[in-house]
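In the laboratory, one determines a bound structure by crystallizing the protein with its ligand and collecting diffraction data. In a computational setting the workflow is compressed into a single prediction: the sequence and the ligand go in, and a structural description comes out. We illustrate the idea with flavin-adenine dinucleotide.
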Amino acid sequence: MNKTDILQTARQCRHYAMCKIDFLKTGICPAAIDRPFVSFFPQGRMDLFSGVYERRIPVTKELVHIVESCNLCGICDKQCHFVTGLRPLTVMKGLKEYVQEFLDKGNVPEESKPDDFLIALQTITGQKWASSDPAILFPYADDPCPATPFTMPRYVVMPSNSSEISEIIKLCRREEIPYAVRGNGASVIGFVMSTGLVMDMNRMKGIRFDEKNWCVYVQPGVSAFETQKEAVKKGYRVNAAEPSALLCANMMCSGIFSNFSHSYGILADNYVNAEFVDHDGNLFNLNQFDAPNLFSNDKMGRKSPGVCTEVGVKLYPFPEDEEGLIVPFSDMEGALSFASELGRRRIGNAVGVLGGEYLSVFISPTEELARRIKRFFSGTLGIKYAVLVVADTYDRKIIQEMEKVVISQKLLSLLILGLADLNGNESLSIIEEYVGDREPYEILCDGEILPLLELLIDSSPESLAKAVPEDLEGFYKDLYSRPEMTNMVWLSMFRIISSRMGRYKHPVAFVLYVPMDNIALIMEIDSEFKRIGDIHHIHNDYGFITPLDMGKRGVYEFDFYVDPTDDADRRNCLNAMAEAVEMIESYCGGANGVKWIQSVLYQGFCRSENLLYLD
Amino acid sequence: MINRQEEEKGLLFITGASGFLGSHLAIELAKRGYSIVGLIRPLNGLSGEERLRRIGRLLEADFRILSRISVVEGDMTLPELGLGKDLYHELSRSVTEIINCAADTSFAKKKREVVERINVYGLENLLKMATKSKCSFFHQISTAYVSEKTSGICKEELTSPKKFTNAYEETKCRAEHLSTNVCHKAGIRLNIYRAGIVCGESRKGRTFRFNGFYYPLKSIHRLVESFRTNLLEKDGEKARKMGVRFVEENRLMLPLTIRVTENAGINVIPVDYFSRMLIKIMDVGNQGGIFHITQEKNCPLKDLIEYTRKYFHIEGLNITLDGSPEGPIERIFNLYNEPYLPYLQDSRVFSSENTMQLRDEKLDDRFTYERFKICMDYAIKADWGKTFKG
Ligand SMILES: Cc1cc2nc3c(=O)[nH]c(=O)nc-3n(C[C@H](O)[C@H](O)[C@H](O)COP(=O)(O)OP(=O)(O)OC[C@H]3O[C@@H](n4cnc5c(N)ncnc54)[C@H](O)[C@@H]3O)c2cc1C
Ligand code: SF4
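The predicted complex, in structure-token form:
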């Protein structure tokens, strides 16, 4: 691969931080274990390649050290391919080659000199945990959102506890250095940039269970994935969203919403207590009588209350007979009515109405397959929307009575492992060519014909692995031999496939809280988003809706997709975003129950009622 | 009875000239020297002209014949048939006969609106043109299945059923009444031709529509192929679990029992038989009337099952008069063929006195194994229509 191709790969990094968690049991990048600054992770190295290749940063001693710490083990290739289809190993090699060539030419790497502020930071945290080296700073300067301006910080620091955070804050105030707190940066909308200091929370990884009180306390460097993993080991579950999102960050940013919010709620429903360091460097927790009132909601927005240093999130029991199922629909109205009915009847633990785009993209290990599967699901089978439900035996029985047609866990596993064989499989013409009154998916879902489908569809880890590049076939075969990889309950809890939504292009997500009793309004908003996306030539699609609070409200996402490396696409997306914001504002604020996620920015600890039911 | 050959052959306007029946008919008429204007909708990026050209190629109609068919692009469901004022008026002035072959033959309820739009409202538009034009003879293509009877004799007369098997039959019945009323008032002679279930040409099996009679056979073919592949190319365990295996002489045991009624049969006629009979009736029977272009005797379903067994080298394919329990193979067969199942419970026969009176040549209408084989050979070669893009 030549350097320009490598650059192209490097620039496509989505910054979702999936390489920071061990979601495929490959282990994480060994080079980042010692000093988990972003630069040591594959994500950071992708940026560093662009940085040096485009001569935006010099080759420094730190850069050489970062480059040398990579042993070309290839873990990132597997992880990243699973999510984005990218192959970062070529970039890692390219970076090594670039630096080697630089050194071979007799060049001497620069050494950055610490200034007083850095020395003060290092005094607080220890030398290795604060830096002003461009090789450390650069990966903290940007993200793929078209609205994010490139913002190079002057310093990055990784504190290890609340008192260090307190001291850092006091130092910043004294020296008038602005700061931003950074989890894993997966909010990807420019919130974690600062011209001054970026505080990376990834050293604070403590997890403490208080099982008697159904709670787990996590420090601000703990991700959703890690928390869920530990909780499941003990027989519990937490309400977690993006696996790479740090729980404290997710709470701070917007509060956590997931398909499980159907039963576990959002915002303050999710936690028991939380601890903070405020902007004066003082500690407080939310059970303190004189703590700031974070339960209230100000729809005009509010400043961050400080740095969250611990959150106690709720633990939930879950029945062992839980299973996932999918109820397919040919139209949005049917799917939304059904989902809100599930809300009203309190059926299922997790509910999400997915569009054809999400469904196909999530389950497909490559983009090409996702496109084909979308055509197969939407075009051939007529599945335009799918209601995913995680439910116990009793609830599944009721669902079967409500909607006769469901994709059972067994069928879904068959379909996922048979994806590579689904489209263009001649024997499935029998379904494709169906001309009767049923939706073609009804035939597919008919439980009676499952044995026949098992025969018709070449479904196995080997078969699925045929869809990926040859050198990854073995890896995918082993990966998909693990039952959890097709298990809807596990996938809903650990969500390792949802970031595949960024594989084709980066999604700019618009999240709204909507009244589920006004489906016509939701559909109107949805078609407005679509209209705006279309006129600005931006790939766009409905994302998902999860019913909340007994189906009274729902959390809804629509996405505009942008190629962050394509200037025209970025421009179009920015125009579309501006128009979408105007449109959203015209729906918000009235008595119609529509709220924008912007109204909970930095208010993720507020009561859900204050957001959902107070105008 | 006036013999048409003595009359001046005027200008024929054929709607649905790119359809299965319409194209055959147009080409047959062109061969006999008629001047034809064919109404064709552009579709899937193909112009009307191109669609006809492709069909012509499939049916091996040479250029001189095709050149006798001038194509106008339009859509029956639109005012003025979507032709635009000038062309519409020009045609109205010159057309002397109209043959309405345009139809949507879907059986699904969900297609009802489209079926009705073409078969009834489209016809209304066409009849409007007929009444304003020089047209003196209107030919309406219909189906023999416009009655609620599923047994006994169906006569060549208008029917007024209370219920129908599907929207196709219902709209075709309405279309018969509509054309009768309008033509009667306007003094236009009307022939209604009721076709049985039309299959490919008798000698080559050529067709590009594989619905109707083909549909259940296609599902059996697909199943047979899948089971064979499983048994030959894989370990065959899944096939055997469903009772599917090879028996002697490489025949496949396919346990599939199809529910039918006593004496059930279908009335299958080759498309060339249909067009020849129609032209005959047009030529000599120009007094107006209803004509069944059907087999004298149905092809019994048990014969069809026998043909299927023989052709596909299968055993285990049976018929039953009662509802035996469904296994996965029956289940998919029944689901897939749901719209066609009523026709497996059908033993009605069609009297065809009007047609027979006019038939001077002996057309062999028996649906023999040889005919079945010709149709299947062609269908499989054409991958049930997948290879044709028109
Ligand atoms: C593909 C994708 C899908 C997503 N789906 C969902 C979803 O379904 N549900 C959902 O809830 N979210 C979702 N998100 C959003 C994402 O999970 C949240 O934005 C989350 O906050 C990201 O976590 P992070 O650790 O990367 O936070 P960052 O991006 O690092 O930070 C988010 C915000 O929190 C602040 N912050 C971080 N840590 C602290 C702290 N300790 N104290 C104070 N402030 C802090 C930051 O300054 C920033 O403003 C999705 C994101 C992606 C990329
Ligand atoms: S190849 Fe290098 S960057 Fe990738 S995971 Fe291995 S050590 Fe990390």
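Residues 112-132 of chain B form the longest helix (21 residues). Keep in mind that any predicted model is a hypothesis to be tested, not a measurement.
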